[in-house]
Amino acid sequence: MGKHFGNLTKIRHVVTYSISPFEQRAFPNFFSKGIPNVWRRMTTSFFKVAPPMILMYTTYTWGNNVHEQGKKKNVDDFENDE
Predict the structure, then answer these.
(1) Residue 34 dihedral angles phi and psi, to the nearest 5°
(2) For residue 33, which of 45, 41, 24 has the smallest C-alpha distance?
(3) 0.85 surpassed by pTM
(4) CA distance linking residue 47 with residue 49, whole number of Å
(5) Distance CA 47, CA 41 (A)
(6) pLDDT digits (tens, 9 = 90+) for 30-40
(7) Residue 5: DSSP 8-state
(8) Structure letter (DSSP) for residue 31
């Protein structure tokens, strides 16, 4: 009843290879190459990412403190009220 989805057309001069999922290794060289590569990438990008994040965090905390102080009432304004 027609062709299946993966075989709708035939492309000439294109060769594809595949390996069975049962023959693949899930984590090849994970500990010997993967973790050092992650460490190298983190250390090289740290000085590009950390300063803006620190600046944004300090700005955020400063803004929250100013907002909280703005919500408080000044006690000296109400000391003569009865």
Answers:
(1) -70, -50
(2) 41
(3) no
(4) 6
(5) 11
(6) 889 989 999 99
(7) G
(8) I
